[in-house]
């Protein structure tokens, strides 16, 4: 049984709601998701604007945008230091900071900006992190980074970890390296996609005022997901450096 206000138009909306639709650009023979790239460039542009505003009039006593950017940098430094320790964290701050700020910006762009008001021939604008290709790319970057960290410190001796403490653990240790990027990518993708679908369905069923708490929860969850991803990336790098 459904409530009286659960009209046929609602069923039509739910039936037409699709996941994974895109409009494509053909670039040098490769099909790319156009709307994902547009929002990614938009997020990068905003991050560059904030960086410029925070550094154009740097002073010994932070003020306005400089204070905001220095607070963000202190937060990122804490993530790197807590996971990597005093000996290694400095060289990994740019990578960890880029991961955190990019994911944070993408998640907030999807939760705050009303992209659905812009109609496209196929698909719709949304957070780039609700596309599995984006999250897999971020996870693979993380995997390459911790392999690089281990090889740069230990050389080929890094691969001894696969047979320690006993050679019987070789298959399990190899499987672990495959599951790390899978868990990183699907955790971020699933949480962001689920939040956007929940807000979309609730907005179609009830007035705008009621989904607002869900939208605020989505903003909070997006921030937490950025923190989790960057923290796990730093932890994996620290594990490779041990």
TrEMBL record:
Species this chain originates from: Skeletonema marinoi
Cross-referenced PANTHER family: ATP SYNTHASE SUBUNIT A, CHLOROPLASTIC
GO cellular component, one term: plasma membrane
PROSITE patterns: ATPASE_A
NCBIfam families (UniProt xref): ATP_synt_6_or_A
Taxonomic lineage: Eukaryota, Sar, Stramenopiles, Ochrophyta, Bacillariophyta
UniProt-listed InterPro entries: ATP_syn_F0_a_bact/chloroplast, ATP_synth_F0_asu, ATP_synth_F0_asu_AS, F0_ATP_A_sf
Presence of the UniProt keyword Transmembrane helix in the record: yes
Similarity field: Belongs to the ATPase A chain family.
Keywords from the UniProt entry: ATP synthesis, CF(0), Chloroplast, Hydrogen ion transport, Ion transport, Membrane, Plastid, Thylakoid, Transmembrane, Transmembrane helix, Transport
Protein name: ATP synthase subunit a, chloroplastic
Membrane topology listed for this record: Multi-pass membrane protein
SUPFAM superfamilies found in the cross-reference section: F1F0 ATP synthase subunit A
Presence of keyword Transferase: no
Gene: atpI
Molecular function as annotated in GO: proton-transporting ATP synthase activity, rotational mechanism
């Amino acid at each position: 049984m459904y409530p009286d206000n659960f009209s046929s138009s609602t069923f039509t909306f739910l039936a037409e709601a699709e996941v994974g639709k895109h409009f494509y650009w053909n670039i040098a023979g490769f099909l790319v998701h156009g709307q994902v790239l547009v929002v990614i460039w938009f997020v990068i542009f905003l991050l560059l604007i904030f960086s410029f505003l925070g550094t154009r009039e740097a002073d010994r006593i932070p003020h306005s945008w400089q204070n905001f950017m220095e607070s963000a940098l202190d937060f990122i430094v804490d993530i790197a230091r807590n996971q990597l320790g005093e000996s290694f964290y400095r060289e990994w701050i740019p990578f960890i900071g880029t991961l955190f700020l990019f994911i944070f910006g993408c998640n907030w762009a999807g939760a705050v900006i009303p992209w659905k008001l812009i109609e496209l021939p196929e698909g719709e604008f949304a957070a780039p992190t609700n596309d599995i290709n984006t999250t897999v790319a971020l996870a693979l970057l993380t995997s390459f980074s911790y392999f690089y960290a281990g090889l740069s410190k230990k050389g080929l001796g890094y691969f001894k970890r696969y047979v320690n403490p006993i050679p019987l653990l070789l298959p399990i240790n190899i499987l672990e390296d495959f599951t790390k990027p899978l868990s990183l990518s699907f955790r971020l993708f699933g949480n962001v996609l689920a939040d956007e679908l929940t807000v979309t369905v609730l907005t179609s069923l009830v007035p705008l005022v009621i989904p607002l708490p869900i939208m605020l929860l989505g903003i909070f969850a997006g921030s937490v997901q950025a923190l989790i991803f960057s923290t796990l990336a730093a932890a994996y790098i620290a594990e490779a450096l041990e």
